[in-house]
Structure formats: structure tokens, C-alpha cells
Write a structure and sequence with these properties.
- Pfam families: DUF1800.
- InterPro entries: DUF1800.
- With 432 residues, this protein is mostly helical.
- The protein folds into two domains: 1-112 and 314-432, no CATH class; 150-252, no CATH class.
- The chain is 54% helix and 3% strand.
- The chain contains 22 helices and four strands.
- It has helices at residues 3-12, 26-32, 51-66, 72-91, 95-107, 119-127, 135-144, 146-151, 163-167, 175-184, 194-203, 241-252, 255-269, 276-289, 293-301, 304-308, 317-327, 335-344, 368-384, 390-397, 404-411, 416-424, and strands at 207-209, 218-220, 230-232, 235-237.
- It has a two-stranded antiparallel sheet with strand order 1-2. A two-stranded antiparallel sheet has the order 3-4.
- A hairpin with a 2-residue loop joins β3 and β4 (235-237).
- α4 (72-91) crosses α17 (317-327), α4 packs across α18 and α14 (276-289) packs antiparallel against α15 (293-301).
- The radius of gyration is 23 Å and the shape is globular.
């Protein structure tokens, strides 16, 4: 495996499995993983895949909870979705696409503590199908999904002057509008004001969820919608659901949004301190393509900076766990244990502490205690895979990026388990 092949697997995908063929053309190999129609994770038997069945299970749990019997379906749905997602990341040959799914799911964070039934469906249906499509399409799918509407409290947001607002004590909730502007699209750099946030929240009134009847998902409740046109960021938007769709499309194609997305993508794929020239290149692709995320992903692969500085990024706990399990060629069933490991290592799946998601810089993950936990966990993995030759594994998953010092330390190790642990916990394995 040469340097370019190693960088392609380590930086752009979820890590190499030793049995993976080395691509003759790394850039073309990565491009092939952006093709439409590639498969996603299959849910275990008994885990509902569609919203009507998910909401029916939630209704049953509400009944059993009131009877003091807990919520038996909640854990089954959440763990089934989580194990399928982690298992697919461990086994998938399309690691670049899986990294993009994880990136965009973090950009549009929803947390399982608040929406346990629908978080997995959100990633499968609002994120995964759009990672190589247009950003504004993903934005609409995300905002209309029950998980996001519930996570940011928009399902009960009522226009003060709407029919419902005039007869109910509940009123406007600005959470969703604020986070779309601040985190998901233009950011404060675009110069929006608190008045814009309030007006945007009025645009989104009536965007709600119907969990107990058709359509079992997004519904526009006209009686809760604030009447009349609204002005957001200097533009007037019509009343009704159409005003919200027009505003989301405009925000999704805004140059400030493209610059924000370019910065985050370059930070994720190149360096914690993203090079301005790389940001400019990805920004230009997003601007000129109208927010085509597939085009932006192909452009990332062709950034000179992405290949010039390998191992510039510290792997997050999720990245590290998946990379280790791929390195030892663990089966997808290893996801069941990995779910708890992510909790131990400080990045529980779909459980970011705030709507801005998990951090994407080394300083947030490099605490000594956190790294020690990684070593302890990797030692246990090495015990179960102690028959593997550490030097062969290092060559297969790190190639020329493995330091001579690591190979010498592994050669002097007192046991095969210790040698394998040294490789899996080496500085270079912790980075991508």
C-alpha cells in the first residue's frame, strides 16, 4: 500500500480493513463511493423502519409507562437503529459515504435523549439520501422530520395571531429558527438580527407532527400558523407552508451558508485550522453548483492540502472505535459492544450535548484520561485478536504512515497482545 492509498483510506473513509483491496486510483475509488443508490444499513428483525410503526410503538410505551411498566419498545428501537448504523460503519466498503453521513448527522444534530424513537429514522431518511445531493434539499428534509421538529420544540410553536394562538395560552417557540440560522445555514456572520429570528419562527409556525394519524409525520397546521407575510433578512416571505419552503431554499443556497459549510468540511477532512485557500476552493464549488454536496465531496478529494498533510486530524472516539474494529476485521455484530464503548469514551452515539453537535478539533478529545480509556479498551480488543501479527496489521491499515518507532516497539513487545495494542494505540493510529 502506497502513501496515497493509505491517505485515502485513513483520511476520507472510516479506516481500512486488512482484506480490502488497495485501489489503483485512490481518487476514483473515493468518487465511486458517491454514486447514488448505494445501500445503507439493514435494521434487525422486529425493529420498525417506518414512522407509522415507530409512532405506534411510542404510543404503546406511553401506555406501559403510565402503568409503571417502563418503555420496552424505546430501547429496542434505539438500540436496533444504533447497532445497525455502527455495524454498517464497521463493515461497509463505502467508508467515504459513511464518513459523510456521520458528518452531516452531526451538522444537523438531534439527540436521542429527547427523541429516542425517531433519531435513527432521522439519520436514515433525512440525512443519508441527501449526502451527495443538494444542500437545500437536505435542509428541507431535516426541518420537516419529526425528530428535528421535536428536538427543537417547533411542533407546538403557535403564531400569536393565528386562530390557535388566539384561543390557547401557548405561543411562539424560536429554537428551531435560531439554530437553523446560527448553526445550520448562514451563521451570525450573515448579520441577521433577533428580529429576523422571531420573524423566521413565525414563518415556521404550524410546522408540526401528526404521530397518531395520517400522514404519521410532518404536517402543516394552518390554524397554528401566523398569518400574513414576514420579513427575514430584508426579504418578504409569504404566509403558509410555501413561505417556509421558499425561505429554507434561499437560506440553503445563500453564499454565507456555502462559506460556513466549506469551512466545516475542510476542517473535518483537512485540518483543525482549515487552510483559507482550501476553504475558498470548496466554497467556490458550492456557490457555483448551487449547493451540490456531491460536487463538494469530489472537490474535497482533489484538494492538494488533503493529501499533503496526512494524520493532521485526531480521531474522535467514534472514528477511533470504528477504525480499530475495521483494522481487526470485526464482524458487524461487534456494534453491540461498541455502543457501550462510545459511552465510555465520551461520545455516545446520537447524544451530543447541544445542538451544535460534537466538536471537530483535537483539543476537545485529547485529554489524558480520555486517551487512557482508549488504550484500556484497545488492549481488550487486542486480547480477542491476539492471533494477528502486529507488523502485518500495521502495514495493512497504516502502510507507509506507520512510524518506524511503532514497529520497533511492537517487535520488542512481550506478547502478541501487547504488540497489537502498541499498534492500535500508536500516535499515528489515533490520527487520520
Amino acid at each position: 500500500m502506497d502513501r496515497a492509498q493509505a491517505i485515502a483510506a485513513i483520511r476520507f473513509t472510516m479506516g481500512r480493513r486488512p482484506s480490502d483491496p488497495a485501489p489503483a486510483d485512490p481518487a476514483a475509488w473515493l468518487d465511486s463511493q458517491l454514486a447514488p443508490g448505494l445501500p445503507g444499513p439493514a435494521l434487525p428483525d422486529g425493529v420498525p423502519a417506518d414512522l407509522p410503526a415507530i409512532f405506534a410503538a411510542a404510543a404503546e410505551d406511553n401506555q406501559t409507562s403510565r402503568a409503571g411498566m417502563g418503555r420496552p419498545h424505546q430501547r429496542r428501537i434505539l438500540r436496533g437503529e444504533a447497532d445497525a448504523a455502527i455495524g454498517f460503519a464497521i463493515a461497509s466498503p463505502d467508508g467515504f459515504r459513511e464518513r459523510l453521513v456521520a458528518f452531516w448527522a452531526n451538522h444537523f444534530t438531534v439527540a436521542r435523549g429527547k427523541v429516542p424513537y425517531t433519531v435513527g429514522h432521522f439519520v436514515r431518511e433525512a440525512i443519508r439520501p441527501h449526502v451527495t445531493g443538494r444542500f437545500d434539499d437536505m435542509l428541507v428534509a431535516v426541518v420537516r422530520h419529526p425528530a428535528m421538529l421535536a428536538y427543537l420544540d417547533n411542533q407546538g410553536s403557535i403564531g400569536p395571531n393565528s386562530r390557535a394562538g388566539q384561543r390557547m395560552s401557548r405561543g411562539l417557540n424560536e429554537n428551531l429558527a435560531r439554530e437553523i440560522l446560527e448553526l445550520h445555514t448562514v451563521t451570525p456572520a450573515a448579520g441577521y438580527t433577533q428580529a429576523d429570528v422571531t420573524a423566521f419562527a413565525k414563518v415556521l409556525t404550524g410546522w408540526s407532527v401528526a404521530p397518531l394519524r395520517e400522514p404519521f409525520g410532518f404536517i402543516f397546521r394552518e390554524a397554528a400558523h401566523e398569518p400574513g407575510p414576514k420579513t427575514v433578512m430584508g426579504r418578504s416571505w409569504p404566509e403558509g407552508q410555501e413561505g417556509g419552503l421558499q425561505l429554507l431554499a434561499w437560506l440553503g443556497r445563500h453564499e454565507a451558508t456555502h462559506r460556513h459549510l466549506a469551512t466545516k468540511l475542510v476542517r473535518h477532512f483537512v485540518a483543525d485550522d482549515p487552510p483559507p485557500e482550501a476553504i475558498a476552493a470548496i466554497f467556490g464549488v458550492l456557490r457555483d453548483s448551487g449547493g451540490d454536496l456531491g460536487a463538494a465531496s469530489r472537490a474535497l478529494v482533489r484538494l492538494p492540502q488533503a493529501w499533503a498533510t496526512p494524520l493532521a486530524k485526531l480521531r474522535s472516539p467514534f472514528d477511533y472505535v470504528v477504525a480499530v474494529l475495521r483494522a481487526v476485521e470485526a464482524p458487524p455484530e461487534a456494534a453491540e459492544r461498541a455502543f457501550g464503548t462510545l459511552q465510555l469514551l465520551g461520545q455516545p452515539l446520537w447524544a451530543a450535548r447541544a445542538p451544535n453537535g460534537w466538536p471537530d478539533v483535537a483539543s476537545e478529545w485529547a485529554a489524558p484520561e480520555a486517551l487512557l480509556r482508549r488504550v484500556e479498551w484497545a488492549s481488550g480488543i487486542s486480547a480477542r485478536g491476539a492471533g494477528r501479527d502486529a507488523a502485518d496489521l500495521a502495514e495493512a491499515v497504516l502502510g507507509p504512515l506507520c512510524r518506524p518507532e511503532t514497529l520497533r516497539a511492537a517487535a520488542r513487545a512481550g506478547s502478541a497482545r501487547e504488540a497489537l495494542t502498541l499498534v492500535l494505540t500508536s500516535p499515528e493510529f489515533h490520527r487520520r
